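Example 3.
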Amino acid sequence: MSPNSLYIIVLSVFIVVIGYDVYNWLRDRTIVAQEIKLQRLKSKINTGVLVVGSTMLLVSVLLHVNILRYSSPIPFTEIDRITLKDFKGYRRPYQTLDGQRDFAFITTTINWDKTDKGVEVQAAFHPARSYVYNDKIVDRFLLKHELYHFRITEIFARKCRQQLSQINEVPSDDAIGEIFSDIVESEIEMQQRYDEESYHGYLMKEQKRWEESVDSLLNSLIEYRIPTVRYE
Amino acid sequence: MNKVQPLIIFLVCLMLFACESRFPTEKRFWGPEDYEKVWYELNYKTPKGEEYPRFSNPETADVVRKLVDQQNYEVILEDTELGLNYRSELAQEFFEHIKYIMDLYTGMDVQDKFIYAEELAEIRKFFLGFQVVYFRVGNENIASQSDDQSTIRKNEQTVIGNFNRYLEDLRREKSYGPYAANLAEGITKHFTKLIETFPNANYTGMLGTARAILGKVQTPEIKNALSELIAKLESMQSKKADPV
């Protein structure tokens, strides 16, 4: 279950449980109860649930996307301008990397958009969903490790374009979705392997080996570097 | 708000008590800062009478296993992508913290037996293995910066002196109880590595110490390991005396 689904569930429960009371309160109606004492107690509980629920909802949204310092996603073509200052997300409480608090994580996605004449496939870095333990830190090795995650995402974006370019006409949404689900699965597997083998960049020799391998893969797919796959 | 207060208090308590574990056992590799943290926890945060992590305690066995995992230093000190100076500095930090931890484990009981005999034997072996890498990296760093052969030779003799102390400590084999035999592996494995790493160093003192200790120890495994070491050193000496 994705975090987004969780937020929707929490929001739905929240609305169902106290939405009616909030509606009454806004319309200046009193909630009908058999005893005034019971009514007051219920009102207080509802207020409490409202405060706690709203706070938890806001916190969970902020931990997922930092809307307070939101920056729009950065496409792969602008990878060279990314610094650790662009990692603007929040760390979840008590989230550690194998017990370590000094770490960073990057959120990247492959997005697609269909037009009449083609499909645009973009690998994007999400600043508001990426995190670094110290936003003033200058650590080129940490940044490099994280950006290679972005490069891996771009490899799979290119693979998507490669597969899309083998189709003669603008594919249906289902066909695109099918290509994407396979590719995204392979991407996740490669991202995990990269972290596992380089131990998040701690093993420099392995990190270098991965950098060479990723660069080579990117080069092998260079003809698919342009985001839009066009159909005549 | 009366009903809400307990909920808030519960949440706050949950956050306060969800604190980090004492030892960084979740990490795959321990760096110098982790050894420092372990030393600090053992030295300052372990109440008097409470035992240190040990193999026989399932709750803390992982800490000792991680403590003596040679991958901890190998992945850093043997990584040629890292600068020699950086590795040399890290090695120095490793050296200090490991030594401090080893000192903590040398406590003895009223019968002059090591309280943590099994752990101490493992840490001492681990420290031997570490020192070979530590001095090699240090010497490589010196060689990369100058032609100071005298410091390099001095370092070689220092590490040999440290290994000799390991041999001297074998006199206290009884203090290790049933774990004395574990010390033999230190000789067969790490002394061999030392000789391979520093083949041109002077091992005359070590040969003398090994011969002297051989007559004093009782543990068969140690006797065998010492005999092998003596044979190896004698063979080296005879080759040096008669290179043809």
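Residues 69 and 81 of chain B are 22 Å apart (CA to CA). Chain B has two domains: 29-145, 147-170+180-239.
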